[in-house]
Design goal:
The model has no long low-confidence stretch (mean pLDDT about 85). The protein is an all-alpha fold and about 100 residues long. It has three helices and no strands.
Length: about 100
Amino acid sequence: MSPQTQATLDRRLARIEGQVRGLRRMVSEGDYCVDILTQLSAVRSALDQFGAELATSHVETCILGHGTGTAHGEGQCMSQEDLLDELKSTLSRLMR
């Protein structure tokens, strides 16, 4: 993962962390349930975006980067069939 991607993901996680703290505050203060559900939906969306960005980075660096010297250490010893299995596994985990 590139330092730029790492920084982008860290910023996203910091934002999500703030949203979750906001959810806790809303519950403790007894906010209107529909408002809490709206915030929950925003957190889920932010997590989905984080997951998509992380999966994209994984595909770029670990799967497509295989054999280019940019692959993560875990992906360097994989055959083409193993790399396709890795892609299937990545997409499956993202879509759960």
